[in-house]
Amino acid sequence: MELTAVLLAAGAYLMVISIVGFILPPIDKSRAKRGVWRIPEKTLFIVSLLGGAVAMYISMRIFRHKTLHKRFMIGIPLIIVLHIALIVTAFVLLR
Known about the structure:
The chain is mainly α.
């Protein structure tokens, strides 16, 4: 597969997972207010690990959801740092 195709596929994937990461916190907050079934915290972390961490963190701050939970306010930024480390490592190894 050509590098251009790989980059295009990676960009499309990151766009989709970022959209998902951005919309989950306000959906969960809305469900919490209505007292109905919530999105499991495990799901929020999985989406973050799959690449939606930056969008998830921005959404959490904008919609003020999960911002009092240390698990999220520390965990999501740690996932972002992990992603940055993986990207830097990949670039160094692929030189």
